[in-house]
Amino acid sequence: MELETDVVSHASGSARLRLANTDILVGVKTEIDVPKPENPAQGKIEFFVDCSANATPEFEGRGGEQLANSISNLMQRAYYSSQAFNLKQLCILEGKQCWKLYVDILILESGGNLCDAVSVAVKAALFNTRIPFVKVALMDGGNIDLQLSDDPYDCKLLDIGSAPLLVTLCKIGDKCVVDPTAEEESCSIVSLIVGITDNPKFYQTEKENEQSFDGSAKCSTIDINGPGSVHPKTLNNAINQGMEAAKALDEALGRTLLRERKENQGFKKQSYGFLK
Amino acid sequence: MPLDYKRFNPPEDCVSYKRFTKDSLKSPEQLENEILIKEELRKDGRALSETRPIFVSTEAVSQAKGSAYVELGSTKVICSVYDPREIPHQNEFSQLGHLFCEVKFAPFSCPRQRRSHAPDAEERTLSAALKQALEPVVCRNMFPNYQVDIFVYIIENNGSCFAAAINAAGLALVDAAVPMYDIVTASSMAVVGDNYFLDPTEEEEFVALNNTGDINHGVITMATMDVLQQITNFTQIGSMDVTSVNLAMVKLEQECANLVPVIQQCIVKKTVEGLKIKKKLEDAAKEREKTLDDKIDIWKKKLQAG
Description:
Chain A: Keywords: Cytoplasm, Exosome. Chain A: One of its GO terms (molecular function) is mRNA 3'-UTR AU-rich region binding. Chain A: Residues 1-132, 164-244 form the Exoribonuclease phosphorolytic domain. Chain A: This is Ribosomal RNA-processing protein 42. The complex is a heterodimer of chains A (276) and B (306). Chain A has five helices and 14 strands. The two termini of chain A are 14 Å apart. Chain A is globular and about 65 Å long. Chain A is of the alpha+beta class and 276 residues long. Helix content of chain A is 26%, strand content 34%. By secondary structure, chain B is α+β, with helices and mostly antiparallel strands. Chain B has one domain (17-297): Ribosomal Protein S5, domain 2 (2-Layer Sandwich), CATH 3.30.230.70. Chain B has five helices and eleven strands; from the N terminus they run H-E-E-E-E-E-E-H-E-H-E-E-H-E-E-H. In chain B, the strands form three sheets. In chain B, strands 3-4-5-7-6 form a five-stranded mixed beta sheet. Chain B has a four-stranded antiparallel beta sheet with strand order 9-8-10-11, with helices on both faces. In chain B, strands 1-2 form a two-stranded antiparallel ribbon. In chain B, a hairpin with a 2-residue loop joins strand 1 and strand 2 (41-42).
């Protein structure tokens, strides 16, 4: 798996992931918006998936629309819980202003296991997202006047330690396969998708770790995909299997992202090029 | 948001007056305390693992091939299934038949907002999930290159509307005499901490979904085929650990099994009635034939008599 963050200069945060033949590019754009009246203290996050026809000819025209919809729905659901992603950190002024994150997911090449790859790339892009600090907020009657910091380095980072990772388990025969290739996917009649939020510790340096508590792994979304059905026992086993896989993946991702951030801070990062 | 231009729309920044009523100004924590009157007893007087009374009937829509109407407490769902027709806009031959599912909320169905006429994200998700729940149940090899249309209309949503939709769609498919492997039933559950609300109301679902604390919370909907012991759809949203997912699953499985006799009874009633009608029609046809035969005999005799 190849992962590179901060690849698009016009986005607040971005990441590119290559998992075997699957290629995903994620860009995060930020905008100021008015919070929903029901949740005045929360920001917003929205996912858009674009299956470009470059990936496979099947996506041409409206072909990829259904797949794109299902992936963005799945992501939206996985990020729904406040334990998965706390929208309160996107609040600027309660009831008046908040940040809205647009997560745009571009599928450049499709070679199986799209959901997992998308979730990893999104998490990396959010980890990389910088939100400028608000310097001054003036209340003038009912209107609010915000002044944002001009300095690109004067920004805050998001707390995404518990953001969920999706794990697809393809049922082939009696067993469930993690990280299926396109061939394996076409062999299986039903697949399970489990969204797991794991220990936020993986994404913090040791110093921060001392203050935060240990989180345990929780499911944030479960879904069955494909025209088949499963036995309850299989589902049970698959959830457990997905959990283990997610844990290993989350730990590795956290380590990599922290290392990259460190390299970035020391200006030591070597750019490996965008599309090699 | 796309606007409905057929009606006069309020200014864009309008909010429903309901948000300023006493009930909706309550914080999630307050609501959480309120949904349980005392331990193990809910607001509407049910125990935690007690479902609302269910009502099912067939033949709700006379124009459709098959239809069903399901009530779960005050949740009301109507479903109609139409005859197979050739799959539109498709060039390739498909070995398996298609199911086209559409879930629609009535504009006045939800207590918190007015639903727009254009299909929104939730409706699209539910449509896809309904298709997932029904596909394994239908013998799709019996009608290759054809599609069956299934339309679900949610008239009133007071929680568990998706479970009601699956139950209605399953029954409507039976009513339409679409070949199926088993009866499909569904049930849902809201989890707040250690409390498992079976067949939740809208308020309980709302509390379970919008919990901001550090406890297990979420809503699970599961559809099963009871005889074949298969789960056809499992949708979870929220955040909960594996043990509570498993616990909820066991309870839901039990509840789905409990629903099967209700559906069966409805089908048997419908079939018996159908047989009765068939017999009546046959009798009437025989009688008609007999009178005709008699008349012919009379004419023949008259002719022979010259």
